[in-house]
Amino acid sequence: MTTHAGGTSTATRDSGHGLVSGWTAFAAILMVFGGLMAIFQGISAIAKDNVFVVTRDYAYQFSLAGWGWVHLILGIVVMLAGFALFKGAMWARVTGVLLAGLSMIANFIWLPYYPLWALVLLAIDVFVIWALCAGPRPTTT
């Protein structure tokens, strides 16, 4: 732990006045990456690419283009929240947890269409929620 001459701790600053570090920065990077992947997922589904498998008897049947729009919009919002998270605002942390949860639900329902892609994004969302909840500890001075 490093200190200045005045005795204030600089190890983890997450007060919203500067750039974040630690788990919050890790979550922000993962959110930007996960949002970008969801955007690509949405664009590919809207374009009705031949990459996806369409199952007949799936309980959550929805058109591929409809799922594409869901993933595209959710990906844009997740990516924007990831950029906001770099400032360390508490609202961005809460929003990040909520959006990662929504992304987990969307990717769980997306499993039959592209299982590997959905599992990777599910894992990213789990790490985002964990990193945002583990976040910085209050420092005692």
What does this structure look like?
By secondary structure, the protein is mainly alpha-helical. It contains 4 helices and no strands. α1 runs antiparallel to α2, α1 runs antiparallel to α4 and α2 runs antiparallel to α3. The longest helix has 24 residues. The two termini are 12 Å apart.
**What is the alpha-carbon Rg in Å?**
18 Å
Low-pLDDT ranges: 7-16
Please tally the helical runs, counting DSSP H or I stretches of 4 or more residues: 4
Number of DSSP E strands: 0
> Which sheet architecture does the biggest sheet show?
none
The 3D shape can be described as: elongated
Sheet/helix structural class: mainly alpha
Q: What percent of the residues sit in helical stretches (DSSP H or I)?
A: 55-70%
How far is the first residue's CA from the last residue's CA?
A: 12 Å
SSE inventory with pairings:
Elements: H1 23-46, H2 64-85, H3 90-109, H4 115-134
Helix pairs in contact: 1-2, 1-4, 2-3, 3-4
Key phrases:
single chain, 61% helix, elongated, 141 residues
Quick synopsis:
The protein contains four helices and no strands. It is mainly α and 141 residues long.
